[in-house]
Structure formats: C-alpha cells, structure tokens
Write a structure and sequence with these properties.
By secondary structure, this protein is of the alpha/beta class. Helices cover 35% and strands 12% of the residues. The chain has three domains: 375 residues, Thiamin diphosphate (ThDP)-binding fold, Pyr/PP domains (Rossmann fold, 3-Layer(aba) Sandwich), CATH 3.40.50.970; 207 residues, 3-Layer(aba) Sandwich (Rossmann fold), CATH 3.40.50; 204 residues, Rossmann fold (3-Layer(aba) Sandwich), CATH 3.40.50.920. It has 27 helices and 22 strands. The strands form six sheets. The chain has a six-stranded parallel sheet, with helices on both faces. Strand 2, helix 8 and strand 3 form a beta-alpha-beta unit.
Length: 830
Amino acid sequence: MRGWPGPPSHRRRARMPVFSRKPAETATIDDREVEALDRWFRAANYLAVGQIYLLDNPLLERPLVAADIKPRLLGHWGTTPGLNLLWTHLNRLIRQRDVNAIFLAGPGHGGPAAVANAWLEGTYSEVYPHVGSDRDGMRALFRQFSFPGGIPSHVAPETPGSIHEGGELGYVLSHAYGAAMDNPDLVVAAVVGDGEFETGPLAASWHANKFVDPVRDGAVLPILHLNGYKIANPTVPARIPREELESLLRGYGHEVITVEGDDPYDVHRQLATALDRAHDRIREIQRGAREDGQTERRPWPMVLLVTPKGWTGPATVDGVQVEGTWRAHQVPLAETRENDEHRAILEQWLRSYRPEELFEPTGVPAAGLRDLAPHGVRRMSANPHANGGLLRTPLRLPDFRTHAVEVTEPGGSIHEPTRVLGRYLVDVVRDNDSTFRIFGPDETASNRLDAVYEVTDKVFAGEIRPTDEHLAHSGRVMEILSEHTCQGWLEGYLLTGRHGLFSCYEAFIHLVDSMFNQHAKWLKTTRDLAWRPRISSLNYLLSSHVWRQDHNGFSHQDPGFIDHVVNKKAEVVRVYLPPDTNTLLSTMQHCLSSQQYVNVVVAGKQPSFDWLDAESADLHCARGVGIWDWASNDDGDPDVVIGCAGDVPTLEALAAVSILREHLPDLRIRFVNVVDLMRLQDEKEHPHGLSDRDFDTLFTIDKPVIFAYHGYPWLIHRLTYRRTNHHNLHVRGYKEEGTTTTPFDMVMMNEIDRYHLVMDVIDRVPGLGSRAALLRQQMGDTRRRARQWTREHGDDLPEVREWSWSELSAPRHGRSPSTTAAPATSADFV
C-alpha cells in the first residue's frame, strides 16, 4: 500500500468490518499532487499526536523517554485524522478555485486537528507569537494542549478559525447555515460526526437546506464522517445498510457523494474528485438562481466520507485491535509514561509520519509544505468570517421615541407591547436588509411582531402555495418548529458578524438551555482574547409568558429560563423585565445595539396599561430600578416598600397600592419598579449591581419590603441575600401552580395577586395587624369570591377586569419616576 512505510502495524490496512466497500471514483489529480496532499495530511497528523502525548522532544531528536510524555493524557484521537484529511483537501479546493471557505468541526473534540492546521498555515503563530513556527514553538504547541494554563481539547474559542467548539454535539449544521445566510460568496464546510448524527438537534437541522436562498446566501457543504464508533458503541448510521443511509440523506434534500476507503492515496484521489464535483454543483445551483432566475429547489451536494476510526494510528495495542474500533476514540495508548512498550509504539507511530520529511531540523515546516496552504485571509484559520467581530458593523436603529406610545397619565392608555415593538422592528428590518434577521419557532405572528411582514417575508425554499401568506424564497424572518435550529442559526449569524433577535414562548426557550450555556461560555472566553473583536449580543424576546396563557395552560407556564441565565458569568448575562410598552422599546433599542452579551427580555403581548411616557421610560431603563413617585406617598420615610419586576407583577403591585391608599391613607408607601433584574445584585457580583448604599436608599435598611416578581421567588432572595435589609424582604412569584384559566385566577393560584399583596403588607408592617384586621378579612373574602366567579362565569371579576389606576390613588401622577435613587443617565444602560 502506498502511504506511510512505518512499522508493520501501520503498513497493513485497518480492518473495517462494518463498512461496505465501494470502488474509488475516477481520479482528477495526478500522483504528484497526491504526494503533496499526503505530506500535509501526515504533518497535521504528526502535530495532532504530539499535542495529545508530548511534553518535550517534539522532533524526536532522540528516543522518547518517560519525561517526554505528559503526566495526564487527554484528548480525542479517533476523529482527528478524518478532520485533518478534510482540512487538507479543502485547502486544495481553496487554492485552486479561490474559494472563500470556513471549517466547522461537528466532532469538535478533535481539537488537535484544528490547532495543527492553524499552526501549519502560520495563523496560530501570528495570533500567539510565543507559539512560533520552529522547534520551540512546536514544543509550546504540544505542551499547552489539555495542560494546566494551556488550551482546551476542543475546537475552542482560543483556536483561530473556529466559530463552533463542538463540545456539545448536534449543532454544527445549524451554526453552518446561520453563517452562510447573507454571505453569498461563502462556503461553509460542516463536518458531521456519525455519533453527532444521532442527536435530535442535528436531525432537525438537516432541513435547514429548505431555508437557503441561493441568490443571497452562501452554501453549506455537509460532510458526514462515518468512522463507525462513539466512545464505547457503534454509531447508528454506520450499522444500517448504506442504501438506507444514502436514501435518508437524499430525502433530506442532498445529492450524496460517497468517498470510502482505507488506502490513503486512493482516498486522496476520491476526496479531491468529490470536492471538485460538490463545488461545481454548488456553483451551478447558485449560477442558475442568480443569473438564470431558477427558483425551484434543487438538491445541494454533500459528502459521505467513510474512513476507519483512529486511521493511521496503532492497529493493535496489547494484542487488541484499536484502529477501526471504539478503542481509538480518545487516547489509544494510555500508559506511555509508565509502560516502555507503549512508549515504543508511540514513537513508532510518530515516526511513521516521517517527520524528517515534513519539518526542518529547526522545526520550521519543510520547504514547499506551507505553500500547500492558501494565502492570507483565504486560510480557513484566518478567514474573517470565523472572527465575526472583524466584520461587524453597527445596526442602523431608529430612535425608539418615534414609535413610543403617548402616555398622558400613568395607566391612562392600553397597548400590546410586543405589537408596538413589531412596528419598531419594521424600521430595523428595512434599514438593515443584509445584517439583521428575526428567528423563531413559528411564533413571530403569535408574539405579535407580524408588522415586519410589511417589509419582509418568511424564508422558505420549498413549495409555496397560493394560500400561503408572507412566504418567499428570500426574507428576514426565519421560522422552523425547532428551537434548537433557530438558536443555532442565530448563533452562526452572530458569530460571523451580524445581528439578530430570537422571539420565543417563555416556557419553551428551555429547550435551548444547553445551547445557551455553550454560547455564554464562548462569550466569556472571547472577552479575554484581544484578537477576537466583540460580536453582537444574542437577544432573546420571551413572550406568551407564564402569567398570560389563557388557553394553553400549565404546560406553557415556566419562567425559569431567567434562573438558568443568571448562573453564567456576570460580565456576559443581562435580564430585563420591562413593565410596559415604552420601557420595552427602550430596552430593545439598547439590546440590539449592544455587544458580547446574552440579553433576555421578558415582555407580554396582551393588552396592558402604559405607565411611563417615552422620556420617563428611557430614564427608568437607564437606571434599571427606581422609585415611581406618582405611585408613592412616603415623603422619604416609608412604612413599607412595595417592589416589583415584570409587567403582570407591576400591575398587581400597583393595584395593591391603590387598595392600600384607599383604605389606609396614612400608610406611607414607597413603590419601586425593577426593569434590569441584575441591579438587585451586589455591585461586586455584577457590573449592573447597585452599591449597598444605593440599594439601602431604595429599599431601606429596616422597613418591610413586599416584592412581586415575574418568576420563581427564590431568585430574588438569591440576588439580594447580602443586602442589609434582606431579612425584611418577602417575595411573591410563581409557585408552580397553573392551569387553563383566567389571567387573574393565575395570579391568585400563585398568591401574587393584589389582595394577597395587601394581606402581606398588613402582616408585616408593625402595628397594622390589629388596625387593619377588617381590611385583611375583606381581602381574603374577595379572593374567595374572585375564585368562585371564575368558576361560574369563566371570566375575572368585573372589579378586576375594569380596574384602572385612579386619581384617588395617585394624586401626583403624571410625574416622572424619582431621580433620588441610583442616579443614572441613559449612558448607564449597559
């Protein structure tokens, strides 16, 4: 067999009992080019093995000894040679055809491959000068891998050319398609591992090709790498008949080009031919759409690559087959520091790549090797699309005041907040028609953002029928009933320098909890990488929220995504609970212009009161928290503080204030609204946190605080547990009680209703218990009457439905929120 002479264990072909054999396709490259490709492939494999094992002696200038081996062997070899093979051949395609391409490794645990190729291309040393292109640099490259103070074993943010870490499997295709959107000249090579193939998010993302516009978008080239095994088991696609697998892939809408074998030179010829054919097909589809106006959806090419797991590694270890089995998944030789025989096999393995042909004695890549890489930004490790902050341009945003609703007095008008936001987004979409998209799982209209259809359509490349509305091959709204795919699309879009908004039902955003984790970690890590400029924030708009699910019920009620988000690093996460329409507009304008955050905005879509005019709303959002003096009568010395966060809690808290003001006019009440949840946290814990002085100024150091919160009440305690007055803080929120019922019955079920808040005040303000006993009794009776009314009439009490903030309750209303607490300007809204 042509390839690596090496030790006998490497000369024979690896056994591949689960793969059917197919003859190689006709070669389109000559032997000289095959030799060149094989040199790069061997060099990348050598560097990958060195990263997993070696602490010193990077060029094998002497026999390996125990001290040359890392004390802890970490990494994943099994998928790495396949990734190196693909990088090698994509470089050929880029060089010969001037292709603008980036590389996404679905099996991102093959991190040694991405690092090795970035070093060979020279990018790694450009980004990290201490890892130079010589012997010392190679030693540093090896030493840092999975080593304390070094780099992770995955295709992490630290790796040049990466936008997809691949630590969690299932998202490579959705990231790839997000990257390709509005990048008409970009080809995104997306390697799908055959273990990853088994995941649910990956299964849904195959359908992303139905949302590609070949005129405006780039192309994704999926490459399913079938090496047969996961950590300890065979993979499903490797063990089903090949015809069945290829039929499935064709059913997903792909033209399948198969490359299979274990002879390196034969595979080189096949793969070169396959990638040429795939690229020809991509350009044919794009040319037909862009020049000839072809509108019918056509199958996009993909490559099915079948090679042994751990290819070119040790065939057997201790008499047990390794290459071509699950045993090659991680570290094939686990005792090379202690076991002389294993260390000898490792040395044979490394020498089988003939490093003396690949590197000069100084460690510099041999003459001609680096010429096999593309030049400049055409290198996949240096492509600016894989460092999206380099390409990002700010959005053109209208002043939210042009869409603000008129508020002449608090509660004097009613609007649907997200519907008004939809009018604002019309301008955003129109003015940023190649850098902004809205993503959601079939909920843009449901969440009442459908005004955007005046200037754009929903994207769909499949059959469009006369009965469809706002459906077209091109548009700015992306809808597929897969939260995972929406999240992946948006992440890919942001990571390549653009902007977006993810609109989702609050309860079901939990489906992407883990994806959010990964993105938040990416943002945290990249904040410390000066060579990665900041990208646009990931913006969630969560509507159809817990308190207004009139017809869906308990299954649609869960405000816990906020709890999940605040677990992440404070410099990355932001949570906003705008209480009305104008505060939502101000909040969203800020979020869309921000960078390097995850912004979670929770806002209702149902008709609700307008509390603040545009200027007051902007000032309140800039503060993040403040006293509403038109709802307060404390004159600087309250008997009780009533706080709230969220639109429905704000309504119930104000209704409670109106009852208290009517029946207990001498009670001094301070009303505090929180729009930026992180203001409650200590300034030492979060950049938005209030100082203890400012927090105490707002909430006092010794007075009862009754707090109505949108989500689970214990989060407020968690955020404020260090505060002086925490022992006086009583929080009402969601208690996992719900059903299909009326809006007010929902708040009563969770004891956050106005009557219960009044009872809490009576119970906690010293001296009120006896004096207000009758009022407390009336509140309990009214709660029972309200519950019975809903059961008899199917609606809320008229006094609840018809309630409004009155002059009697607010003799000073119309004034802006007080500026005495937490002084701020709009510049502080960060």
